[in-house]
Amino acid sequence: MFTVPNLLSAIRILLVPVFLWLVLVPEADLLAIGVLVVSGITDYLDGKIARATGKTTRLGAVLDPVADRLYILAVVVGLGLRDIIPWWLAVILPLRDVVLFSLVPFLRTRGFSALPVHFLGKAATAGLLYAFPLLLLGDGDGAVANLARVFGWAFTIWGVSLYWWAGILYAVQVRRLLASTPRSR
């Protein structure tokens, strides 16, 4: 339980409110971007270290996606409150997770608590984790801000599309699992 990968995931989770505070209170965008960069690096490292050392744990399998979802929620709330992204975008990203979370009780009827993460979901999350710092950096004037905004929106469009496509694939997996697996006791 007390492994380096789990510690890295816990640190990521603890930095979520720090990120939100930096974005909303002092509007210290560069520091907030720094927190996102640290989060991205630790996200990469926790999985890499866990697989390389054989220290994958059930706790780690829960902490890592929870940290990802918390960051996505915190960023869309922060960017939405700052009017950097439109509110419809701040709603549709967490809505996908609400839809998938509503499928968990059905999975449990078959003895599962979650589905394994697949590459498309990881790619979607990675795209969004690139998009958000760029959008934050793009909230300004000048050539760098303009370039960051363009690339930020490009990653946002791809990330949101892949995020929902992955969600649809997860829902299809749940449907197939329900059809092919008998109820557990």
UniProtKB/TrEMBL annotation:
Gene3D superfamilies attached here? 1.20.120.1760
One GO MF term attached to the UniProt entry: CDP-diacylglycerol-glycerol-3-phosphate 3-phosphatidyltransferase activity
Q: Does the keyword Lipid biosynthesis apply?
A: yes
Query: Which InterPro entries does this entry report, sorted A to Z?
Result: CDP-alcohol_PTase-I (IPR050324), CDP-OH_P_trans (IPR000462), CDP-OH_PTrfase_TM_dom (IPR043130), CDP_ALCOHOL_P_TRANSF_CS (IPR048254), Phosphatidylglycerol_P_synth (IPR004570)
Alphabetical list of Pfam families matching this protein: CDP-OH_P_transf
- Tell me which GO cellular component terms the UniProt record holds: membrane
How the protein sits in the membrane?
Answer: Multi-pass membrane protein
Q: Which residues cross the membrane?
A: 7-24, 87-107, 119-138, 150-172
Q: Which GO terms describe its biological process?
A: glycerophospholipid biosynthetic process
What keywords sit in the KW lines? Lipid biosynthesis, Lipid metabolism, Membrane, Phospholipid biosynthesis, Phospholipid metabolism, Transferase, Transmembrane, Transmembrane helix
Tell me which domain of life the UniProt entry assigns to the organism this sequence originates from: Bacteria
What protein family is recorded?
Belongs to the CDP-alcohol phosphatidyltransferase class-I family.
| Protein name stated in the entry | CDP-alcohol phosphatidyltransferase family protein
Q: Which organism is it from?
A: Aeromicrobium phoceense
